[in-house]
Amino acid sequence: MKSEASEIEEELNPEEDFRRCGEEIQQCLYAGSEIPDQLYVALYVAKLRMTYEYKPRESLKQGVMKGSKEELDLDRQLANLQEELRLMMDPESKIKRKKKRTLEVVQKEIE
């Protein structure tokens, strides 16, 4: 069994791994023997690697961080708009309103 680090360091060739697993399964069938569970696992892993491109952890981490920052920015903008709407609707508010900023405009921005 290989460690995750050694699997990452080796050059991945999922098509060749898939082909090799097929040959081994065929040999087991011709011999009339049972197909080992590990061979099923290797076949499944090869198929997954053919279907989904490998992405290093660092690039995944950067993608998650970027998405998190964008979501945080959107949450802040939404909170600011909701506060502005609340102040616009409050008759006691002393906020100076811009002529173009109506309740409908702010509600559309929130949506």
Strand content: under 5%
Q: Sketch the topology as an H/E string, one letter per element.
A: HHHHH
Overall geometry? rod-shaped
Indicate the radius of gyration in whole angstroms: 28 Å
Question: With helices defined by DSSP (H or I, 4 residues minimum), what is the helix count?
Answer: 5
Mean pLDDT: 80
Low-confidence stretches: none
Number of strands: 0
Share of helix, binned: over 70%
The class by helix and strand makeup works out as mainly alpha
Q: Would you mind describing this structure in some detail?
A:
The protein has 2 domains: 4-51, no CATH class; 70-110, no CATH class. The model has no long low-confidence stretch (mean pLDDT 80). It has 111 residues and is mainly α. It has helices at 4-9, 14-31, 37-51, 57-89, 103-110. The protein is built from 5 helices and no strands.
Quick recap of the structure?
72% of the residues lie in helices and 0% in strands. The chain is mostly helical.
Features:
single chain, 111 residues, mainly alpha, 2 domains, 5 helices, 0% strand, rod-shaped
Describe the SSE topology.
Layout: H1 4-9, H2 14-31, H3 37-51, H4 57-89, H5 103-110
